[in-house]
């Protein structure tokens, strides 16, 4: 098992699907349709490949926690529904891997909270993502009763943080200093 090779693969694939020139939602409707008809959404194809390769790592997955949490988060925040549905379950698998090794998933949790702040501040994330994140991880947790209460607490924590980060991002363009201050206090 060559850790560096796999690490390079995942980072390159995530860098590919997150590059600006592939963010189809930023294009005009006509350009979007033209690209979709000619090439399809390459992000989805590569995202599915990342997901498939992740699950083929077997016991070596633990080597990528917490290092791949940020890149996977960046990928799941792309506003493409099928890509999100396919890749958000990787988070549960990461939690499960760390839990089976240590009895908790603190490294994963700390990393996702740190990276989520950075990504939302950078303009990524939305209400739909928050809802999908919650429903997918909650559904995954139901299949593993031993870890389900920890996952539910984690999901609740991340959902609350994401709500506050989205509110904060929304009011940063607001003229009212009181609104901005209130959101800042809530976030803290």
TrEMBL record:
It comes from the Eukaryota. GO terms for molecular function: guanyl-nucleotide exchange factor activity; small GTPase binding. One of its GO terms (cellular component) is cytoplasm. One of its GO terms (biological process) is cell migration. InterPro entries: DOCK, TPR_DOCK. Residues 1-136 form the Dedicator of cytokinesis TPR repeats region domain. PANTHER family: DEDICATOR OF CYTOKINESIS, DEDICATOR OF CYTOKINESIS PROTEIN 2. This is DOCK2 protein. The lineage of its organism: Eukaryota, Metazoa, Chordata, Craniata, Vertebrata.
């Amino acid at each position: 098992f060559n850790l560096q090779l796999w690490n390079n693969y995942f980072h390159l694939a995530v860098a590919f699907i997150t590059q600006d020139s592939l963010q189809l939602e930023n294009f005009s409707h006509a350009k979007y349709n033209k690209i979709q008809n000619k090439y399809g959404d390459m992000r989805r194809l590569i995202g599915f490949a990342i997901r498939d390769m992740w699950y083929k790592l077997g016991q070596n997955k633990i080597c990528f926690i917490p290092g791949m949490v940020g890149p996977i988060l960046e990928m799941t925040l792309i506003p493409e529904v099928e890509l999100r549905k396919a890749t958000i379950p990787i988070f549960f698998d990461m939690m499960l891997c760390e839990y089976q090794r240590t009895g908790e998933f603190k490294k994963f949790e700390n990393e996702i909270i740190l990276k989520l702040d950075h990504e939302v501040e950078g303009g990524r994330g939305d209400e739909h993502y928050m809802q999908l994140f919650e429903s997918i991880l909650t559904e995954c947790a139901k299949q593993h009763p031993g870890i389900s209460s920890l996952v539910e607490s984690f999901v609740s924590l991340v959902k609350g943080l994401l709500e506050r980060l989205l509110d904060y991002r929304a009011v940063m363009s607001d003229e009212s200093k009181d609104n901005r201050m209130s959101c800042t206090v809530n976030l803290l």
